[in-house]
Amino acid sequence: MNAPQEALVQAMHPSPDPDQRPESDVVLGKYDRNPPGISFLDLLREDFDTHNRNPFSQGFWALAVHRFGNRRMSVKSRLLRLPASLLYKVMAKWVQWLCGIELAYTVKVGRRVRIWHHGGMVLGALEIGDEVEIRQNVTFGVRKNGDGRWMKPVIGRRAQIGAGAVIVGPVVVGENSTVGANVVLAQDVPPNSLVTAPKPIIRPMR
Q: Could you give the maximum distance between any two Cα atoms of the chain, in Å?
């Protein structure tokens, strides 16, 4: 792991003890984590362009609901944002049921992220960087039941995540890396790397 990656992991996990909840988790979900420097509407337009301006793209709708979930947190009063919170919960469940994509607003998602397909997707990362591309049946999350919700992956900028990939635990996938189809990953990946699943074994039938 290079120095920037190591610094990122340390920032996410200030204590070597996985049972010690970091400050970043204490404030998780309490403020708008949409990318800075771009308005909410411009961000939606950019996501729409990233998904080839296809109004039927399930990936676009998953991101649009995610962006809305974050935007509502800019309203400081819990009472005033209650209607938006109820609407977000309904829309998030709709995306989960109809599109097969689970992407909570607490995941920090960068710009120009592309969700190519739909179905069987649980994108419970800590962070997904700019220009990441994700295929169907991908899972991000904790390594085992009982782990803290902060023990999740960070997906670096311009990473490519293949169909059926499973990335779990407090790992960092370095920028410009490709995680191939059906890879099960529970360790850090340096930048500019290619990770593939073992080749299938072909034997003659008896």
A: 69
